[in-house]
User: Fold these one by one.
Assistant:
Number 1:
Amino acid sequence: MRRIWGIVLAGMLLLAGCATLPAPDPQPTGRTGVDWRTADSGDFRPGLLVSDALFYDSGSVGVEDLQRFLRSRACLPVDDVPCLADYRESTPDKADVGPGHCAAYHGGTRQTAAQIFVGAGRACGIDPRVLVVLVQKEQSLVSRPSADGYTRATGYACPDTADCDTRYFGFFNQVYNAAWQFRQYTLHPDERRFEVGTVDVPFSPDGACGSAPVEIRNQATANLYNYTPYQPNQAAIDDLYGDGDGCSAYGNRNFWRIWTDWFGDPTSPRFPVWLGSCLRQEGGERCLDSYWLVPPPR
């Protein structure tokens, strides 16, 4: 029975670990591509923007699959810049900074955007798709790339109340440091403004727009609020693909909406509850080993 149990569960893990990406469009990047609109405002829950199991699944997609996905997207550059599928940058090595932090990143000459997304995601234990959605949410870098968009790709070190810190400019710097920041939020959740539990979340950088309590249900959602500290108001939710009103903020709404359009429901768990928090990656730490492939001896 132990052997049978191990085979069945191993098969479940294999199937759950295979991310399904939309089929690529045959048209060349930079001209046309696919444009899905599948999100329903009735499904939006401010306390659960993305599941831990998806957010921390750093092995969800490989470089080739992600490259095919980028080529499938409609892309109309604003400036004389390449689409992400054609982007290249020489990147530095980043050292492993210790247990729980980001592992080593191995740089290279003329790395593609897909290599950078996958490399940074795997080094820091973040799903590379999180980083792809992030650059679209922050700079429309997948669909409408611009020179400024590549410079400030993830909005890292760009607070609402001050200028961006130029030390972090550049596509690779932005992507890697965003992944690093999400890892820091996960390692030190008690030191952050937004953590799991009921927290007041503003609707806008304008304090006059007020706030409302949100029951943040998992660490991945807390990470997104720490990165972009606003929730959408009802006007922004009602017009999911458009503009709300003067008190609307769109960042976390757009993260949820873009993920839904591109990759499906971001809140769906990969494993049933009875498999336990370790397999479900709650808290963002991997602890799967061969022990879990068979039940413990009685």
Number 2:
Amino acid sequence: MTQSKAQANAESTYFPKEGLAPEAVFAELDAASANDVDWRDGRLGLYVHFGGDDVLAVAKEAYLRFFSENALGPSAFPSLKKFETEVVAWTGDLLGGHDVAGNITSGGTESIFLAMKSMRDRARARGEGGDWPEVVAPFSAHAGFDKAAHLMNMRVIRTPLRDDLRADVDAMREAVTPDTIGMVGSAPGFPHGVVDPIEDIAAVARAHDLWLHVDCCVGGYILPHARALGYRVPAFDFSVPGVCSISADLHKYGFAAKGASTVVYRDAELHSFQPYVFEDWPRGRYAVPTFAGSRPGGAVAAAWAVMRYLGRAGYERIVGDIMGACTRLAEGIHAEPELRVLGDPEGPIMTYGADELDIFAVAEALEEQGWFVTRGAEPPCIHLGMLTMMHVPVIDRYLTDLRGAVQAVRDGRVRKGAARVTYGG
């Protein structure tokens, strides 16, 4: 007799009494993924960052070789210490830094959290910031800054954007108070894909002796290579005086395994505010550099292996293909009279909206053609997430379907789009 869905759901809440053969376990895994988006066909614009089958193979093999090792114990696993140290140094070099310090983290949120902790603890050491230290950030800065502030008794003061969707530096300057300890800029910001005027923000930060963190979780491993290829990329990294720390995600355009990011500081003195140390414990002194204790050795090894495999030349080859796809996509969107790309983005994130058409209806029409479409809230737009190598072959197909979606909305076949605007769970 076939087991009812209710019975199956009920049984899934109890710890299994008996184990299964590996083949049966894998069959259940496959069945569970049946409704997942098939990201390999290029119809998913975020969550997965694909650098090519060869890059993926290197990351997987490296991860498996260090699957059980733990980066919490560098004395036990000096190999992982070597990998982390070199990845941080290579990242600093890529981002215009010398003698940088930092760590590999679990992702961009942890990198942001650690930068916020470091600026808070430096302010405490200097007797600054009051009971609720403030960090000034543009409206487009990642929500992770507010998440970190919520957990650490801080406040994020968000300021308006300019018409080009970049940070309004005058508004940021006016938001500085005696309790302000830091400022934030993005390169690029996730909502619109544009790079904030980091040099101008840095000038304000220097004038007030504030910590400036640049969120390069998206751009850190693609913008430097795009610049080397001749693409327009404004100054945003440690080459700008006043930039204290940078977050950059290895598992995005570093094409490493999840979860891996970096938080990098201009020097060791700034990095010294990051670790957590606890002395009053029977086990002895507890000291960790990151939020996490145990850290997967596989993620550290995979990041090192991919960077060592690709080198600058390999990254530039991939980035050239991705940026070329971005250019073709922007040209195709501009060719539709009702559509416009928002903000003139420098990197791999692109959003587009419409003045006359319901852009969410266009999104609905694209979904009917099998695309996984994400939306932006302010201004209303279609958010193309982050283009990678899986999108390079499908740009023409996307533009063809986009033209069909626009025509369907023009004709009234799709009348109203649902504004389902969310990110994450």
Number 3:
Amino acid sequence: MSSEKNTLDGLRIDRRGPTPGSQGPAWLLPSLLAIVVAGLAFLWWLNRPKAIQVQTAVARAPSGNSAASSRTLLNASGYVTARRAATVSSKVTGKVIQISVEEGMKVQENQVLARLDASNVEASLRLAEAQLDAAKGSLEETRPNLAFAERELKRFTELAKTKVVSDSDLRKAEMEALGLQARLIRQNSDITVRQREVEQWKQQFEDTIIRAPFSGIVTSKNAQPGEMISPMSVGGFTRTGICTIVDMSSLEIEVDVNESYIDRVQPKQPVESTLDAYPEWRIPGKVIAIIPTADRQKATVKVRVGFDHLDERILPDMGAKVAFRSPAEDKAAPAPAIGNVIVPKGAIQNSENRDLVWVVRDGRVERRAVTVAQTNGDESTIAAGLSGGEKVVVNPPPALADGGKISEKTP
């Protein structure tokens, strides 16, 4: 009986729970968690964002220009402009009958440039001159009559004292003298009016002769004989100008300077300019004025730069590069040069009409706006926004992002 009871007790389910110390080893659960964390870390490492491999280049100063660039505070580009230029037109509407200028011709102030048809004006002028002559003739006729009347009045006055003539005869002589005096005054006024009319028609005749307002060079010829010209546009077949004259002594350079660097420009500051047509010709000059307004679209300020000495090779609308130099008193401690560095052409991108480069710093890239001065072959000169020694990405891949990690390709 006892053996059967033991058998039944062995088959009974014990619902009292495990006793302390009956579980597995205590390190099993932390080990499993560590294995899971390690697996997740390995998966993240396998799928982590990898650094983009790029080709880089170092921005360098132009060869043979290190001494000059050490005194350059800023580089900018602009165009040669003329402060004194005019499209010459006429004061009246008329038909051109003569053009006396051609492009490139030097003209002097008041030199005749063109003539308009003045046949109607000449006829009116001759009529006014004839009327003036007639008025003068009437005046010459009245003067002797007035002199005779004044003598008769004097004689009648003497005779009236002796009662030889009557008072009515005396009064008649007085009235005749007074009437001739009034006629003489009126005729003098008529002559003045006729003279003014003659002057008016002479001025209208002079207006048909178009003269140079100042000395300069003709840069364009806008009309030909037979065409109609007017000071204002009155139709599609009417010219408004004869030619354009430029005063070459008023040439200067207008430069747009980024507003971030305008504090480096001062009035009368020395500059060194080069023309795109003559890149090896360095032209000294100085800052004439800083226009006190900014262009909100381009974020630039206009600066006027003058030449120390003008040359016939300098022409209006030529492209120019301007290097703003430190003043003479600062030569001992020049400011660090910014810009005027050379990078590969492939390092420059254009986005929203702005030139950009990717600058490498501490294994990451930074997008930066720059000003490109010129491009020669496979190299571009940066005028502003980049310093010598900085690394830039050449032919940047589309996947680059500002602040993204990169790795440089080994040559």
Number 4:
Amino acid sequence: MRQRFRLDRPARCGYLALALLACHRAPQPLVPVAAPPASPEQVREWVAATAPRGHVLYRFRWLFRDDRSSAGGRGSARMAAPDSLRFDVTGPLGSRAASAVVVGDSALWAEPPDAVRDLVPNYPLLWALFGVARLPEDGAELRGVQDAATTAWQYARAGDTVTYVRRSGRENTFLAEVRHGGRVVGRAETTFDDDGTPRSARLTVPSVPARLDITFTASASASAFPPEIWRPRQP
């Protein structure tokens, strides 16, 4: 995914400006500090509202940028309820192809082996790019708030926090943030059309800093996917 390109000086200065901006504008907490505890039943209900339904194929364009380079291309993702995902991406002119099958919070296989790691820092953020929340680990501390337009909830366990926010109204959005030891690992934001289809997604990784933008170009439902979809490509 991280194909390197030579940048001219103006573009490089622009990326350095982006880096400085990221350093001075640290993401603020998405769930109010005073948010009350949430019950496991509430969290399961909130997560279920984002869960994949049936089988759907997404096609998209992607663009990755950091302070050193820029790369982009096309991709597809096949999602099957309740928690299976096959994604394929390529760079310019079909270069730098990568594929993986993810079930829940683990990869069954990936080609090349670091395909998932090069795309996103962890699995909750990968799923969040498609508007899907994950359930908390056992023993996590749960907090959350809900009103007519917004549902925000958070899991905290052993110094790690995962936060989700769903907003509806003039624009339907889904946000996810992962922190480790108080440091933001990554933040994903997905925007949806009125029918619930993802329109665009952005992943920001402040520590690099880096940004991955996804623009969804098509989606189609299916009764099922052929079994070979879940297998690695044959040489």
